[in-house]
Design brief:
Helix content of chain C: 25-40%
Structural class of chain C: alpha/beta
Oligomer: heterotrimer
Number of strands of chain B: 4
Strand order of the largest sheet of chain B: 1-4
Distance between the termini of chain C: 32 Å
Low-confidence stretches of chain C: none
Order of helices and strands of chain B: HHHHHHHHHEEEHHHEHHHHH
Radius of gyration of chain C: 18 Å
Number of helices of chain C: 10
Shape of chain B: globular
Mean pLDDT of chain B: 85
Largest sheet of chain B: 2 strands, antiparallel
Chains: A mainly alpha (about 300), B mainly alpha (about 375), C alpha/beta (about 240)
Strand content of chain C: 25-35%
Number of helices of chain B: 17
């Protein structure tokens, strides 16, 4: 294996890492901070993707001259749409199922089925692709033999920006303070005047919005169909659970490890066996560290 | 007549139904259905009943044990595939009874299942060999899935893996099994599964007579699982199980090892699922990865949820109702099936956690009293917290 | 030494650097009723947690009838003869009082045995007897979840009695009880302490005075004073710590 191959593998690993991280960040907030297992998280990513697709169609028809920027608008819109949907979802369904994680799993699974069929029926049963954005086409030619696709570089950038924003939000703003307070001690938070219900709704919506951004960015890499969400959700879950649910940094580290594992496993074995091996590995790790790889040492 | 007496009188039929629930189910399954359905529909009913095995198991482990398995498809699949392997080898041995097996004989590999020949697998893998014999196959179906389940569960519960994580583990396993089966086309028939069997121990499976016999066998076995389930629940083990579900930590201080008990019921549920899978293969004539993975496994949970997660008999009804709905939708309004089942999940979880069985209780006891029975007293079914 | 049933030696446990129990040594005799008192955070509950196996110590040893408990898992410790009652009443809400008590019968606790367990007249007799002693004779068919707080406490003690432990660990058994219930419980405890050893955590000093044989005072994870109630109450160290016991 020469340097080029190594570099390519590392880059692919990095790219997969950032993708997983984007996907996992939203779920980590919802699952890690709130303890809610949203099986429809994948469909929310798809929602983000479809929103971007819709934006593309809109621009094609009305602003054909601005096709260069449609994508950025698409990402923002994806966030808004999924954020709003998440807010409504929390108020309408999720909040009745706190303290019942298994029931939440089942109810959100039902939701994911409904969403899938909605996409199939009202958008298209076939996969859709977004028009390519001119300035993201092609690759960065590092050397004669080594090139990194621009689209992937963009996603890496987006992932960094998004994570930084989330970090900033959670740790440097008042809203973030409220969120952390409520997740750590709900009763006292309520007692000091924080509107816990609003915080819950906001936090969940934020997680969904992040899913929307993730889904939106994937449109550059692959087409979107009604079952795309399902193919993303397993990986996302694995990353979050693997990393230790309570710890956002753990999620990021886990995404990195998974990303590398995935790219290396797939180099050595077929796609499906690679997935099976990763799932198996996760099961084994969970056995030894039931709270995830990076969970803080449990008291007692 | 006094108000109370009138109330008692109106509830009398429901009391009767409650006390004789098992008999009523037996009559339904063994008399009403076979007499009123013609062969094709009876075959469908038999298929539904084979899923019922999984649902009964899920009631045991979820309703009473607090373990939500999202991977019962694994055990159903194990039973199904093992039976299929036996049937396929029998079909391949009778090369003149089917054209596809004749094809493999043509390729010079008599006795080799056709899909293996198509995939250039030259020799029967060693782990297929024992399935030539019914004397191995039947015990294998009864023992292997249960054993695997026991070890898996015990190893995890001893480590005190939480319920959520265990569910995710079962989910992952279902996913892995489906991936592996589909990937190893040469050995497992891949995405098409194993099909095209003709006889079971010489009995022609296509004949109506065989189908009827199969139906009765399935129904009787299913009723048996309900009886076994009841026995377990009424015993001390059943009480300990409920105690574990509600306060696992405390149970240790009563001197019981929760890991053992949970692993035991989990393996019983796996046994039931495996039997269901085997009966499925016999009646539907195929083993397929589409019944092994994540989606079908979760669907099995809804059967139990609709029937009532605390009711073994309810599980059977739940399976029949939901399976029938699936057939109905796929025959008439294909695109609405997912809406229906998705909504079903949500509605049952939100408004009817006790399923149809709790409706029965409401009718029986009058609405007020039944409120206290909807979920166990004072307890959160899953986390053990109040 | 031969009448000693529990010996705790140099027991230490720390959580994230904080030493909840610090090199603690304590010895309990057979048939002794030892009360452990001390301000909140002194390490009393943690001590009981370690004896019954709920928490693993960082170092030190706990010997019960000569057997080392620190490396044993909870259910085995229970089977060895240690019974624990928790601060908040911990009973099986969805089972009846009868079932709670019957379940605590200390035999046939393996899978096969539990599956084919059949109640005998002796067991029934015992359940009735314990229910009687716990003032729960009339509630045998009630689901434990619907009992009052005080009744739940008694049920839990009853369940412990069924287990016939040689060492009983009680954590604030009268917390949340009315005065009358406290009196009844004191009577009860005096009755059941015959033939077994008890370690009892309590804050109610009048209650302690009524029942304790010996008292151990804990402070910041260490033993501050030990002796009879009078000795301990007059110990200047204790007076200083409590400022008006």
């Amino acid at each position: 294996m020469n340097f080029d191959m190594l570099a390519m593998q590392a880059f692919t690993g990095l790219s997969v890492f950032t993708i997983l991280m984007l996907m996992a960040l939203g779920l980590a907030i919802v699952f890690g901070l709130m303890g809610v297992i949203n099986m429809a998280h994948g469909e929310l990513m798809a929602m983000g993707a479809y929103t971007t697709y819709g934006t593309a169609i809109l621009f094609e028809h009305y602003f054909p001259n601005f096709m260069g920027v449609y994508f950025l608008i698409g990402i923002v819109l994806a966030f808004c749409v999924t954020f709003a949907f998440g807010y409504v979802l929390e108020r309408g369904l999720i909040r009745f199922l706190y303290q019942r994680p298994l029931d939440t799993m089942l109810a959100t699974w039902g939701l994911s089925l409904i969403l899938q069929q909605t996409y199939r029926q009202f958008i298209s049963p076939k996969e859709v692709e977004v028009p390519t954005v001119s300035w993201l086409q092609g690759a960065w030619q590092v050397t004669d033999t080594l090139s990194f696709p621009l689209s992937r570089i963009f996603i890496i950038g987006l992932a960094i920006v998004t994570s930084a924003s989330v970090y900033f939000l959670l740790f440097k703003t008042r809203w973030g303070l409220r969120i952390r307070a409520v997740t750590q001690n709900r009763t006292i938070s309520g007692a000091v005047g924080i509107n816990t219900e609003r915080v819950d709704a906001f936090t969940f919506a934020l997680g969904c919005g992040l899913a929307g951004i993730a889904g939106s960015s994937f449109t550059m890499l692959a087409s979107t169909g009604p079952v795309t969400g399902q193919s993303y959700i397993v990986d996302t879950f694995i990353v979050v659970v693997f990393g230790g649910v309570e710890n956002l940094l753990g999620t990021i580290a886990s995404a990195f490890i998974m990303g590398q594992m995935q790219s290396w496993f797939e180099y050595f074995m077929s796609g499906s066996m690679a997935r099976a091996s990763i799932l198996l590995l996760v099961i084994i790790v969970l056995y030894f560290r039931p709270n995830g790889l990076f969970a803080s040492k449990v008291r007692r | 007549m006094s108000a109370k007496a009138m109330q008692r009188k109106s509830m009398a039929p429901w009391n009767f139904i409650n006390r004789h629930a098992l008999t009523i189910l037996a009559v339904l399954l063994l008399v009403v259905i076979p007499l009123s359905l013609e062969s094709f529909r009876l075959g469908l009913a038999a298929k539904y009943l084979s899923f019922g095995f999984c649902a009964v198991g899920i009631v045991l482990i979820w309703g009473y044990g607090g373990i939500l398995s999202l991977g019962q498809g694994v055990f159903f699949g194990l039973g199904s595939y093992m039976m299929a392997m036996f049937l396929k080898l029998e079909a391949a041995a009778n090369a003149d009874s089917s054209s596809s097996t004749a094809l493999s004989a043509f390729f010079g590999q008599a006795g080799l299942p056709d899909f293996m020949a198509w995939n250039s697998v030259e020799k029967l893998p060693w782990w297929w060999e024992p399935f030539h014999y019914v004397g191995f196959t039947i015990p294998a179906i009864l023992i292997i899935p249960a054993l695997v389940a026991f070890v898996l569960a015990y190893v995890n519960f001893r480590k005190r893996v939480g319920p959520v994580y265990f569910s995710i583990i079962t989910l992952a396993l279902a996913g892995i099994m489906a991936i592996v089966i589909i990937g190893q086309q040469g050995y497992t028939g891949g995405i098409n599964g194993i099909t095209d069997f003709k006889t079971f121990m010489g009995m022609d499976l296509d004949q109506d007579r065989a189908k009827v016999i199969m139906y009765y066998v399935t129904a009787v076995l299913l009723l048996l699982t309900v009886i076994i389930g009841r026995f377990i629940l009424k015993s001390r083990l059943g009480k300990v199980l409920v105690a574990i579900r509600d306060r696992e930590d405390r149970v240790r201080f009563s001197g019981y090892d929760p890991a053992m008990f949970k692993a035991f019921v989990f393996s019983v549920a796996a046994l039931f699922s495996a039997i269901g899978g085997a009966m499925f293969s016999l009646q539907v004539g195929l083993a397929s990865p589409s019944l092994v993975g994540i989606v079908p496994s979760i669907e099995m949970v809804i059967y139990a949820a609709v029937g009532g997660r605390l009711s073994l008999i309810g599980a059977v009804y739940g399976t029949l109702v939901v399976s029938y709905a699936k057939t109905f939708f796929s025959e008439n309004f294909v695109q609405y099936w997912l809406y229906f089942i998705g909504l079903l999940f949500i509605v049952v979880v939100m408004f009817l956690p006790g399923g149809l069985a709790s409706l029965m209780e409401k009718l029986r006891l009058g609405k007020k009293q039944a409120e206290t029975l909807k979920t166990p007293v004072g307890k959160n079914l899953e986390t053990g917290s109040q | 030494m031969s009448t000693e049933i529990l010996s705790v030696s140099d027991l230490t446990v720390s959580f994230d650097g904080f030493k909840a129990v610090d090199n603690l040594s304590l010895f309990v005799e057979k048939d002794e009723l030892r009360c452990v008192i001390g301000p909140n955070g002194a390490g009393k509950t943690t001590l009981l947690d370690m004896i019954c196996g709920k928490t693993k110590p960082s170092s030190g040893s706990i010997k019960f009838k000569g057997n080392e408990l620190t490396k044993t898992t909870e259910y085995k410790i229970t089977r060895a003869g240690v019974g624990r009652k928790f601060q908040t009443p911990s009973v099986y809400e969805d089972l009846t009082v009868w079932e709670n008590l019957e379940l605590s019968y200390p035999k046939q606790r393996g899978i096969a045995a539990a599956l084919f367990f059949k109640s005998t007249p002796e067991i029934n007799e015992r359940v009735n007897q314990v229910a009687q002693e716990m003032y729960l004779k009339d509630e045998l068919d009630t689901k434990a979840g619907t009992l009052s707080h005080g009744q739940k406490q008694w049920l839990e003690i009853g369940m412990l009695l069924m287990q016939e432990p040689e060492l009983l660990l009680l954590d604030e058994p009268v917390a949340g009880m009315s005065a009358r219930e406290r009196d009844l419980t004191a009577e009860l405890l005096n009755r059941i302490s015959k033939g077994r050893s008890i370690i009892l955590i309590e804050h109610d000093m009048e209650f302690v005075r009524k029942i304790a044989h010996r008292v151990t005072v804990l402070h910041q994870g260490k033993v501050l004073s030990e002796g009879s109630m009078d000795q301990v109450q007059n110990d200047p160290k204790v007076i200083e710590t409590y400022l008006g016991l």
